Amino acid sequence: MVHHYHNFITIPADSFSIFIGSRLFLSETLAYIPQKFSHQKVLYLHSGHSLFYLNPPEEEQKWIEFRIVLNPVDILSMVESDPARFMIIVYNPEWFKDYPEYVLPFGHLCRERSRRRQEVILISRVWDHTIEELESLADKVACVQDILTAPNNNKCACSQVTLSDSLPHEVISKVPVRKYGQQALGP
User: Fold this and answer.
1) Is residue 27 part of a domain?
2) In terms of C-beta density within 10 A (0-12 exposed, 13-18 middle, 19 or more buried), how is residue 161 classed?
3) Is position 37 within any domain?
4) Of residues 89 and 61, which shows the higher confidence score?
5) Buried/exposed 2-35: b ≥16 CB within 10 Å, e otherwise
6) Quick check: is 32 in a domain?
7) pLDDT digits (tens, 9 = 90+) for 29-76
8) Which positions ≥6 away from 77 have C-beta within 8 Å?
9) Domain range spanning residue 111?
């Protein structure tokens, strides 16, 4: 099955957006960013352990800077001071695990950055307490799941469910389903 998320998921201009979903969804959502922001710096912040969701053609790589972020102080500093026009942050739950007091300041800095016409996208494979806190500060939140696998390995296509596509059914059934005008179908 071929997915084309860029046909229905848009990134609002000058915004703080949060996208949660599978690797395929996140990769396709970010695929057109190098063309949209050609000749402008794009900063890609990640923990060093995460997969790369942005794989631009070689001629566009010179505009993208990849940086490793290891703690909440580093990420707050970069969000506040880096002049990049566009910032992609690959969320790592470990950043705020021991420092929950940094979550809201981080969200406010992302929001302030978007008000200065510098877009921020936070991408994640998981929906957790940190993402839930940031949701009220974001201009847009999109949470998409491609496939759910039931305990008997039957697969069903769901229009919108939270979390990654590798969680067992027992875990998914305990997580609140986020609905944004679409129905979430169960197995």
Assistant:
1) yes
2) buried
3) yes
4) 89
5) eeebeeebebeeebbbbbbbbeebbbbbbbebbe
6) yes
7) 777 776 666 667 888 899 887 656 666 666 666 678 889 999 999 999
8) none
9) 5-144
The verdict on pTM exceeding 0.90 is no
CATH code assigned at 79 = 3.40.50.300
- How many folded domains does the chain comprise? 1
163 or 91, higher pLDDT: 91
Where b means 16+ CB within 10 Å and e means fewer, 109-143 reads bbbebbeeebbbbbbbbebbebbeebeebbbebbb
**8 Å CB contact between 128 and 162:** no
Residue 150 lies in a domain: no
User: What is the rounded distance in angstroms from the CA atom of residue 27 to the CA atom of residue 70?
Assistant: 22
For residue 79, the number of C-alpha atoms closer than 13 Å in the C-beta half-sphere is: 30
- What is the rounded distance in angstroms from the CA atom of residue 150 to the CA atom of residue 167? 10
